[in-house]
Amino acid sequence: MAVLRQEADPGEAGLDPGALERLDRELARRVDEGEMPGFLVAVARAGRVAHLTAYGARDLAAGLPVESDTLWRIYSMTKPVTTVGALMLVEDGLLSLDDEVGRHLPAFAEPRVHVDGSGDRMRTRPAAGPLLVRHLMTHTAGLTFAFYHAHPVDALYRAAGLDSSVAPGTDLAGTTDVYATLPLQFDPGTRWNYSVATNVLGRIVEVVSGRPLDVYLAERVFRPLGMEDAGFEVTDAQAGRLAELYGETDDGGIEPIDGLPLRGRPRFLSGSGGMVASAHDMHRFMELLRRRGELDGTRLLRPETVALMTRNHLPGGADLRTVGVPPHDDPGNEGVGFGLGVSVVVDPSRTREPSGLGAYGWSGVATTTFWVDPGRDLTVQFYTQVRPRSSHTVYRDLKRLVHQALAD
Fold first, then answer.
1. How does pLDDT run across 205-256, given as a tens digit for each residue?
2. Cα–Cα distance list, 107 to 92, 180, 206, 225 (Å)
């Protein structure tokens, strides 16, 4: 079993030990005050982990501590992994970013777009252009999530039973067929809406590769990179290391809630949010990206592909606030664009938290996050297991305190 370990002295890596202590104290305060059960944070420079702290509990009731080998539900951090898998098929010549989705999934061949109205009185029209694979990777497809309450199409997702993004009783193929029956919010490629698009991308990976998504990613990504614990299920041997999942309560505390059904292979393989992984696994994945597609002599992607993945693809080079539909048109999205499966900082002067130009990464709904900052040769990952009622404020403090620790 591979475990993440600290490899470098913070000072030698250009990090201020005093600032890192402040980071740990702030995160520990949140645990001690009951906001989080525990956490793991790791900061690396030039690929070497120079700060690693595990604190608090992975399971409060059982009194089990967070440890370096704890397993985490990474939810939407699955999306960049699925995207890398799809980009490998692009490099294989089996898929193109400009392929029409309907070529691989015929149910999407003739997408329609919302015009006005809601429910039975909704009017739609044919999309102005085709839905492309690149639109799925950039969340400019016009798809949505049922849990938004900002657009009439969101309500159609709820009416279709997609509250958890999976059609009841179906697998990935069946669920994506249900998505295809619903109208898009906007013409593909014109706006940005975070959505179920990566589930559709995962289904395309299955169709093009001829393998189930979990099998394909294990063969092409996890094993070559040494991501030994990563996957869509937890074995009996792994189960004791899995962190309990919590949700916020009315009084600001936390309580256990149901999470992904990870014991036994799930019927629905979610390319959007189905993975579990350790900090070691995600360090390996971040290193693949930081090193532009190669790790320890194993190359999964060409440098040009990683460069394409990690640059802004939003219409007109805009940021998320400018082209995002509600609820994404908020000040927190200023200065941040979107690449292929990851957000990308395009203007650090306008971001809410300190950021490096070109820094990229993504987060998960259970308050997990990672980012790679090429300009500072920096990678950061953070984990707890709390599904907040709104965006968790820990991210802001995390970025602020990490950036304060950059001594060079």
1. 999 999 999 999 999 999 999 999 999 999 999 999 999 999 999 888 999 9
2. 25, 6, 15, 34
**Cβ neighbours of residue 258 under 8 Å, at least 6 residues apart?**
245
Which residues have CB under 8 Å from 107's CB, separation 6+?
A: 176, 177, 180, 181
- Those residues whose C-beta lies under 8 Å from the C-beta of residue 13, and which sit 6 or more positions away, are 44, 45, 46, 48, 50
206's CB contacts (< 8 A; 6+ apart) are 172, 173, 212, 213, 216
Whether the Cβ atoms of residue 152 and residue 118 lie closer than 8 Å to each other:
yes
Under the phi-then-psi rule, with left for phi > 0, alpha for psi from -120 to 50, and beta for the rest, what region is 145?
Answer: beta
The amino acid at residue 5 is R
Q: Is the peptide bond before 388 cis (omega within 30 degrees of 0)?
A: no
- Rounded Cα distance between 293 and 91, Å, is 12
Environment class of 158 (CB within 10 Å of its CB; exposed 0-12, middle 13-18, buried 19+)? middle
Rounded Cα gap, residues 196 and 136, in angstroms = 9
276 forms beta bridges with 73, 231
What phi-psi label fits residue 292: left (phi over 0), alpha (psi between -120 and 50 degrees) or beta? Answer: left
| Residue whose token pair is 């949505």 | 144
Task: Give the integer Cα–Cα distance in Å for 355 and 357.
Answer: 7
Predicted structure pTM score:
0.97
CA distances for 27 relative to 10, 22, 38, 252, angstroms: 18, 9, 9, 16
Residue 383 CA to residue 351 CA, distance in Å, equals: 22
Whole-number Cα distances in Å, 385 to 68, 180, 266: 15, 32, 20
Maximum distance among all alpha carbons in the chain? 64
pLDDT per residue as tens digits for the range 186-216: 999 999 999 999 999 999 999 999 999 999 9
Strand 48-59, strand 38-45: pairing: antiparallel
